[in-house]
Design a protein that fits this description.
With 772 residues, the protein is of the alpha/beta class. It contains 30 helices and 23 strands. It binds a DNA duplex (15 and 10 nucleotides) through helix 4, helix 10, helix 26, helix 27 and strand 22.
Length: 772
Amino acid sequence: MSVSVSSTDFINDLNEIQRRAATTIQGPVLVVAGPGSGKTRVLTYRIAWMLSQGIAPAEILALTFTNKAAREMKDRIERVVGAAAHQVWAGTFHSLFARILRIEAPHIGYPTNFTIYDTDDTKSLLSAIIKEMQLNKEQYNVNVVRSRISHAKSKLITPKRYAALPSLLEEDKMAKRPQFAEVYRTYMARCKQAGAMDFDDLLLRMYELLQSYPSVCQKYRQRFRYILVDEFQDTNELQYAIIRKLVHYEGSQRNVCVVGDDAQSIYAFRGATIQNILDFQKDFKAHGVKVFKLEQNYRSTGHIVEAANELIAYNKRQIPKTIRSEKGEGERIKVIQAMSESEEGRHVVNLIVEQKNRYHLRNSDFAILYRTNAQSRVFEEYLRHNNIPYRVFGGTSFYQRKEIKDVIAYLRLAINPKDEEALRRVINLPKRGIGQTTMEKVAAMAQAAGKPLWEVLDQVPVAARTAQVLSAFKNMVRGFVQKVQQIDAYEAALHILDQSGYIRMLQQDTTREGLGRQETVSSLLDSIQQFVDQDQEFEQEHTDKSLATWLQQVALMTDLDESSSTDDDYVTLMSVHSAKGLEFASVFVVGLEEHLFPSYLSRESAEGIDEERRLFYVAITRAERFLTLSYARSRYQYGKQRFNEPSRFLSEIDSRHLDLIGSAKSLVTPPVAKHLDSSPTASGGAKVQGAFYRRPRAQVLPDRVDPSTFKPSPPDQIQVGMRVLHIKFGEGKVLAIDGQRDKRMATIFFKDLPQVPQRRIMLKFAKLQILS
DNA sequence: GAAGTGATGTTTTTT
DNA sequence: ACATCACTTC
């Protein structure tokens, strides 16, 4: 079906080279797009142009890295061509392939309702495997193992291929993990058995599908006749292999357009390689690949662009290009020197206030960018102090909180009971008396039978009582599986949380944290409801409101993707990585110190430093008008104070672009009261300042009860309302007692435990003396 | 089986 | 500094 686009005037918004990049739609195209060169505009206009030429929207596949980028692209296409935009397949590699796999998975031995394992699930499964294989967990560090598996997958090395590669096996032997190949093999087998794919599997299995099933491959080749890839410099070998499968074959038109900038490649650590850009030119040479270089920068002022050019010139390998600004030279780049991280925070926030007033900027014009998420803390404190609204992106997201993962695990189980990680997570939550020992028996049996835990759950030889609990649990989940098929995601979630007793368990915890958890869960429920209600107005294929669909979507979500509907005027705090593709009037890049930025982990290799430099390049080119760089002479790391040199990147920018402030003076005379702190290790004002914000700590334990006069009373005499004495916790009042006989638990309020006065204590064991 | 205690490692970045 | 994990005690 074709869409009529009334006017193609929009194309005149583009400069000459942009226009050629947007309208050359037949054959392979490589667009090398410098920062701020209107890349997104070219991409969206290109799609709009295609539609105006009679190409059907459903024939277009546009691959991006974040959901946010995809959404923005769709929105912008919609503004040009209207509702047809919805039919373009635009999304992240992971989400689009997950969608395809949801249809095609049975070909490769997976159920259509497969689970997506996140990094935590992966790590937990790997730990279990390492334990079962009785391997040393220092030598088989889960993080190392996980990343090695991920890298293998991104290079298309399956366990089978891995085991046949002498160089890798040798490497493992040297690193004292000779069994790695076996761990890898087992891991993949267990994932498959659990009907689960991790992030890399979404790509690897997609490739497998195209590789091994010609008819399926044929289907998608015909369907996606035009393919666009954004941020091509951040694709890995596997992603490029999939693209090639879809577009590079006998008789193909090879209508593929990749857009990227080698200077902005910042994901080598997860297998991305700019080799793909070079390979692309080679692979499509015979088919007349056209290369367009966008070198005009529309975003930043002169000093910023020139500084970026000077900086990136220090990198070895790159595609030659010169970015030009058209905005005049603008303000110089400010450099803040601070004594400590807290002084850095204060200076940055003060400058934000000043710029806001002087230039009439909004909060949303500002971004504070840092190398590691842990650095956000100080800036948050000072922003809060100044009543400036802000939002922290990244870090521990909503979806990583324990209670959210618990709820999601229950929901996952209702869709796919074979999901091993979900099962382990909730089987004893609330407490059902299924402990470690029982689970070890279940795991051993499952392993012996080569079956998922779920299937052997009611066949394990355990005490009658435990067996009864296990089979009750299994029946409950069976009920969920049934139920979920008849109702929408929201109703399903309510039903499951209620029936499982999870809600009741949460409600019993009336501490402040407990109430917080209840709130978190209820906001998750809200978001499920929102999912059910949303876009009813579009007559889209997206009308599937099942729990399965919601889960698939949520598994690939990061908190970058959450839309905060209320109050959208806030200062943005995020890592440099997450800032890719964004722009702000005023940008602060903070923590410019050796060991931090560049990271100490990169210092060994030149490539490592080059990647850090590209990262810094990305950071500074986010700024439109104002750029401020800052570093602290000392900061707390690992609980200890560290002194770092200023980042080498600062000296790679010509000083004519720079303006040093807040500097030498404060280095000599710390501004804040020296007399308050006489300790020689404390370096002046910084520490005193910091202390102001430090949270009160140190839990004071009450004085021990004198053991010689302590006489425990028989447990069955303890009643609600009594005043009792506990050998460690001191005096308390019994608020409630629940459970029967041996299982009787008392909730007691201990007045001497200021942090968490309420404790639940098992009466059978606790030594309590009745006072009155 | 659960809760409390002490030791230990961890931090780069994200779909 | 913080969280996770093995270990002990109830």
